[in-house]
Amino acid sequence: MAFNAGTRLGPYEILAPIGAGGMGEVYRARDTKLDRDVAIKVIPPALAQDPERLARFEREAKVLASLNHPNIAQIYGVEDRALVMELVAGETLQGPLPLETGLNYAKQIADALEAAHEKGITHRDLKPANIMITPAGVVKVLDFGLAAVAQSSDPSNPANSPTLTISPTRAGMILGTAAYMSPEQARGKAVDKRADIWAFGVVLFEMLTGKPLFAGETVSDTLAQVLTKEPDWEQVPTKVRRLLKKCLEKDSKKRLRDIGDAWELLEEPPAPLAAANEGERRWMWPAVAAALTLALGVAMWALWRAQKPVDRPLVRLDVDLGADVSLPAPNITSSVAISPNGTRLVYASGNPTKLFTRRLDQLKATELPGTEGATLPFFSPEGQWVGFYTRRKLNKISVEGGAVVPLADIDGFSGASWGEDGSIIAINFTKGLLRIPAGGGPPETISGLATGETTLAFPEILPGGKAILYAASTTAIDADHSIIEVLTLADRRKKIVARGGANPKFLPTSGGVGHLIYLNKATLFAVPFDPDKLETRGTPLPILDDVAHDATGGAGQFAFSNAPSGHGTLVYRRASGGASGMTTLQWVDTSGKKEPLLAKPGVYEYPNLSPDGKRVALSVTEGESQDIWVYDPQRDAMTRLSFGGGQYANAIWSPDGRYVVFSSVLGGIFQAHADGGQPQALTQSLYQFPFSFTPDGKRLAYMESTGANFQIWTVSLELQGGQLKAGRPEQFLKSSFNDLLPSFSPDGQWLAYQSNESGKYEVYVRAFPPPSAGQGGKWQVSNNGGNEPRWTRNGRELVYQSGDQLMAASYTVKGDTFVPEKPRVWIAKLGGTEWDLAPDGKRVVVVTPMKSAEAPKQEHEVVLLLNFFDELRRRVPTGK
Fold first, then answer.
1. Pick from 153, 325, 444, 556: most CB atoms within 10 A?
2. Tens digit of pLDDT for each residue in 851-880?
């Protein structure tokens, strides 16, 4: 909530903004009752709606109210989710300072902490930015916003260990905080007042030297220094070394326990060493010689140690990209990438998707303009460009924004890798590997598909640029039927290096030998890999088991930084689990009233009501299988229609209710009797998804992708021997856009569908069949985004979804012209994204996500694992 000068908040008049912090905006205000200036800290509305942020705000008020000390900024009151605080004039703490001045300030800081600790309060965020020095030289410790009243906890229980989070309001603070974190805090363990004592030592060191004690280029480097680096005690005066050593003891059990005892550890400089007598000098020389020998040995060990990488502990950060971010559902279009140096994320968000970039040390993300519909973002080697695919084109854009630069036309895309020479290796998933020149241009085909391969995906250029790693699918697009191959560019030879995996990545973790990483369903595997011999060593071992992936397990949501420092960062989205992935089926009528239809929790998708509305066909996911079932509410019984552990979706009923047709991923369209029985193939092609029958059941409309986008096709049907038989397919519409979800009108004369031809999805209607002389007329029905059109069976209305609303548009027909009226809100809040319209046109069935307070917000959260290469070296040694 931004305030202008003159705005009133109770008795307080806003004068001017002071700044913004992790807890909100801060303003100078005038207390009109007591005639004094105050500071007001206000939570923005977006954060005020977040229970976690609001709880933190209320906790800060209570904590500060209980502290009454001259070295702690005072709280005067609370006014409508705003803290009214003492306005502290002065400057934040800075060094270097003279020893006596520094000790004077340190004593006041210690007094403030002691007062807090006596009340069981730990600050947990002590740093120079939270310490003000008034013109009179008085220290004021600010912002106890992260303080917590000491409570009983079990640090040995991982469930009680806090998780470090980078959120939109804390992003700018995590690097600063990391430099003052105690080792136990950096490891995610429970903390107490000894964490403040550690931070006090770090602050005192910086006060006296003018230099941060721990300052790495990245969060990973900084936290690693906290955990492993020993301070250079020669930089600080002798008088304070004993105190600092006791405050900066990495083992909290050995650290100074009470800040009030700090001043007993100050030492006076030792007296000059008296001259040794002749006898003392005689025995001193052998000791000196021994010391020199020992020093030489230590120096040699240090030189060896400096050449050997020091493994750092794994650090996990949950990154909240913001409540306004909506990452796409995990599928073959991966939505997140990390820059080679591990400092910047690029992700796709929204519908249609757009690319956003965010530095991890900055507050907000920035939209990259012109990237509508973007998929599979990837970085250039130096991290200055982002490549992406949209509308049958491979493009690039600077991470700073600017114009989109087209690179190549590709009719079908499943990943790319940017070489050190500027060229790009891309894959047309049904045609093979392509090379694109550094400046763009027509792609050069490097290699096609081998016999038995159906698709290729996820290329990775190996170090030196002489070979390419990629995944190839055989009979089905899932990890169990995939192989990982490597192609040498010199002779174009292929070699299988692993089986049963997708998304291969090579990580240069151990000099010349590194690790091959690949995904099988939600599990990430690692195996040592020699990029010179192009072969693996040993047995692959599981590293993670919660990586988000598409329903077939063929594509995962993860990426790595190249990590020049050799420590590496992994970013990934978690696979849904528990209540966050469970759903129910509910009826929702036009008034918004909800009624359970299938209350038993399950992972349900694609509901389709039978012509009489008494049964519903749907997809049910159990484990890694997705099958078609028919649910009968009257009997509360489920009938299974598909078998074999495959991936089946998009079930629709024939108009007579006798058959259900559905898609088999990479297997075409299948049919089954609605009462059960062995399913039979209706068509056999890649990426076909049925959506609508004509009213007489003699033609089926479906969408199919054979390259860059989906197009609408229809096929004639006839009944032979108790089975549906398909005729010759006919393409309904040819375009360069995604044309999806076709739906026949009740009279069969019109076909509604959604298309992104305008830059976002809208609902259109065309005549069926199209006039022979051309494509015929086209009418746009939606006016502010729309998808999933459905016709009411009893009248002249077309219903579609727009956001979380269902809209309805009445229409009339004048000759060969379709005349839609202005859409109106039909259901104000749908509560789900999968739905179907009841035959009576008065309600819909909706797949409704189960609510859970503990469900992860996966639509806008990713996980960072810092020092991931070090973890691999520990868990999967290369033997070199």
1. 556
2. 644 344 445 678 888 889 988 888 888 875
